[in-house]
Write a structure and sequence with these properties.
With 109 residues, this protein is an alpha/beta fold. The chain has a single domain, classed as Response regulator (Rossmann fold), CATH 3.40.50. The protein has a five-stranded parallel sheet, with helices on both faces. The chain is globular, with a radius of gyration of 12 Å. It starts with a strand and ends with a strand.
């Protein structure tokens, strides 16, 4: 499983989570910054990424991308290290999302 971190999240998450999710990428570092939500979600779905974002607007776009998987970090006004810890603590749940019919998980701190 690999993550695509939306531009709302620090690219440092890629290195902080490399041991669990080694193929993850950041939208800020792979040329997707400022392309908009639809394009980022399209790229994530096309390349089998689980999109991780703080932006709840992605929920309305899911109907256009049935293969897309999203993790929303709700109320993510906390440091990057805490965001990484939230994702680590939920790694099994997120892994199950990637093989299920569900499309989205919302995580709280």
């Amino acid at each position: 499983m690999k993550f695509l971190f939306d531009e709302s999240l620090s690219p440092r998450l890629v290195s902080l989570l490399r041991d669990l999710f080694p193929e993850s990428q950041s939208a800020l570092r792979n040329g997707l910054a400022r392309f908009g939500d639809r394009r980022i979600l399209e790229c994530a779905a096309a390349h089998n990424f689980v999109l991780v974002s703080t932006d709840g607007d992605f929920e309305r776009l899911l109907k256009h991308f049935p293969s897309a998987k999203i993790v929303i970090l709700r109320s993510c006004d906390y440091p990057t290290e805490i965001a990484a810890d939230v994702l680590r603590r939920n790694a099994i749940r997120i892994a199950e999302l990637s093989t299920s019919h569900g499309q989205m998980i919302i995580l709280e701190r």
